[in-house]
Write a structure and sequence with these properties.
There is one protein chain. 47% of the residues lie in helices and 13% in strands. By secondary structure, it is of the alpha+beta class. Among the domains are: 264-473, no CATH class; 481-592, no CATH class; 598-712, Jelly Rolls. A hairpin with a 2-residue loop joins strand 12 (640-646) and strand 13 (649-655). Helix 8 runs antiparallel to helix 9 (170-186). The termini are far apart. The relative contact order is 0.08.
Length: 720
Amino acid sequence: MGDYLRRSRGLLADLPVLAVWLAAGAGLSAATAKVVDWFVMTDELLYERLAISVAQTGSPLPALHGEHVPNVSQLYPLLLSTVYRHGLVPDSLHDAHVLNAFVMTSAAVPAYLIARQAFAARLPAHLVALLCAVVPWLVLSSFLLTEVAAYPAFLWALYLVQRTVAAPSAANDVLALLGVGLAVGARTQFTVLFLVVPLSVLLHELLAHGRGGLRRAVRAHLLLAAVVAVGTVALVVLTALGRASSLLGTYATTASGNLLPSGTPRSLVEHLATLAVALGILPVLLGGAWLLARVARPTERRGLHAAASVGVVTVVVVLVEVTTYDLRFGGSLVRDRYLFYLAPVFLLGFVGALLDVRTPRWSLAAPAVLVGLGLLALRFPTFEKLNVDTPASSVNDYLLQNGRSLAGTRAMLLAAAALLLVIFYLGRRLAGRTAVAVVLALATLATLGGETAYAFDRLFRVDGTSGRPITLPQGVVFDWIDRTVGRNAKVTMIPYSQIAGDYWASAAWWWDLEFWNVSVVRGAYPHDAFAEIQSTFPKLDLRFDPRTGRASASPTRYVAQSQRESRFAVHGPVVSLTRDVLLIDAGRRWRADWLTFGLDPDGWTKPHVPAVLRVFAAPGQTHAVTRSATVVFQAPNVDAPVHIVSEGGGSDVVAPANGTVERQVSVCVPPHGFGDVRFTADRSAPIYGNQAYKDLVGVPRSRGVLLARISLADELGEAC
C-alpha cells in the first residue's frame, strides 16, 4: 500500500508537465488558427492529399491520386486524417492548424521525461519542458508539414534510446527501436537515429568500462546487437544491388552525391552557430559544455551519463547529416528546419549547467571555439517573408539593423556571447548559483518567446507565397468544386497554362484547385505536359484516339478542364464554369469533342507548321452536318495574319499585335467521323518559353499565334 501511495504521489508530481503542454498548445493554437491559406507548396498539398486518402479509404498506407506511393513519413498524414474526414477543406484546414499546435507542443512531455531521467528531479525537468515548448520553430505548426509530428516523435525516440542505454534489457531495446521507427515514420530524415542507438550504447559502455565496454555492450544488448548485425548485412547487400536508397522512399535522392562534400567544416560551424543564435547563444555554449563534461565522467549516475551520451552522439550525427544535405542540395543556405530537433538536447544541457554545482571549465572550449567560428562565418540571409526552410533567419533583419553591417553584426554577437559567459561565471561567484540560474532561465525563456512571436509577426505581416495574406479566408473562392458536386464526388483535373507566359501563376492556379477541393482525386497530364506542377504525384498519361476521339482512360465521372485549353475538349455537359475552369460531367466513358495537332502544348502555332482543329461527330449523329467553333487568336508583339482552310473554303484573319481576334469557323462532320480545319500563321516572332515544361520556361522561342480559346457550339448545323 505504501509503494502504491508513493507511486501515486510521484505521478501527481509529474502532472504539471501536462499543464505546460496544454497551456503552450492553447497559446500556440491562438496564432495558428489565424492561418487560413497554404504557404508551402507542394509540401502542404502532398500531406493534405495523403491525409485525405487515409480518411476516404480507411487504409494507413500512403496513396496519391489512387495509387500507392513510397512515402515513409506517414505519421503526420495519419494524424491529419482525423480532421479531414468530413466537411469542406476550409473547416478542415482550420482544425488542422489547431491540431498542429497541440501536436507540436506535445514535445514538452518526452522532453520532460528525458530531463527527469537525467536529473532525477522534477523542477529542472519541467523547466526543460517549458523551454522546448516555446522554441521559435513552433511557427512551423502554421503549415501542413511533417515537422509538426516529427518534433515530438524525435524526442520520444531519444527518450526510449536513453532508457535502454541507462537500463539495458531486451524490452528496452525493443522500445528504443520502435521509438526510432516511429520517428522515421514521422520524418525520413530520422533514419540516422538507427546509428544513434548503437553509437550511444557504445560510447556509454566504453567510457564506463574501458576495453571491456564493447563486450559488455554486446552482452547487455544482445537483441540490439543482433538487429544491428542483420541490418548491416542487409544494407551491404542492398548497396551492392544499387537499391539501398530505395529504403528512403520518396527521399531516395537524398542518398545520392558526395556524402561529405567540400566546404563541410565551414558549413558545419555555420549550422551550429545558426542554432546558437536562434536559442540565444548561451544554451548552446553551456549546454554543449555540460554534455561534454558529463560524458567525460562515466562515474556519474547512470541515467545522467546515458542522457549525456545520447545527447552528444545525437548532436554530432544530426549536425553532420543536415550540414552535408544542405551542401549537396541547398547550396550555402543553412536549413535549420532540419536542424532544430537538436534544440531540446542543448536546452537539456543548458538547464543542467545552470543547476550543476560544478561550473564548466575545459569542456567549454570546444563549443566556444566552434560557435565563435560559426558566428564569424554566418551570412545572415534576409528574406521578404518568413522562409520555412530557415525560420531562424526571421530575426536576421533585426540583427543586421542593429549591427549596422555584416561585420558589425558578427562582432555584436561575439561580444554578446562573451558578455553572457561573463555574467554566468561572475554571477555564480558573486550572486550564487540559484540566482544566476533563475535570471538566465527567465532571460532564455523570454528570448525564445520573443523570437517565436517575431516569427509569427513576419508570417502575418507579409503576404504568403500564394501572393495572398495568409490570414485572409480563401475557401469561398476556391472550394467551388466541392460545393458544386460534393466532397464525395470524384474529379480529375487536367492542368494547363491558365495564365499565358507565367508558369508559376498557372501552377498556383492548379495547386489551389486541388488543395481546396477534396473531390479532386486524379490528375491527367497528356505527354507529361505541365507535369512539374505536381512533380511528386502519380500522373495519368491521358491520350485520345485521333480517329474516334475516344480517351485512353476514364478515371472519374467529372473533369476539371481549363476553358483556355487548346489541345482537346472532353465531351459532356458543363456543370459549372468558375475562374476559367470548366467542370464537365464526362460520364463513364470519356471522349473528345475536338483535338488539335501541330501546336505547342501551350497553344502556340509553330513556324511553317499548319495547326489542325479536328472536330468529331456528336453522339447519336446519323448524317453529315456542319459544326461551328469559335476560335480566339492572340498575337505576339507583331500583327499575326492567319490563313484558315476547311472543306468549305478558306479565309484570312489578322490578330493585332499584343491583341486578340475572334473568328467562327465551320466544318462538315460525317457521322462517326471527323472534320478538320487548318490554321497557318504567316509570320512568327520571339515569345516566352514553352509553358508546358518547367525546363523550357526560360528558353525563348519563335511562334506565330496563340489559340487562346476554342469553343465548339453544342447545336448541330445543316446537313452537308
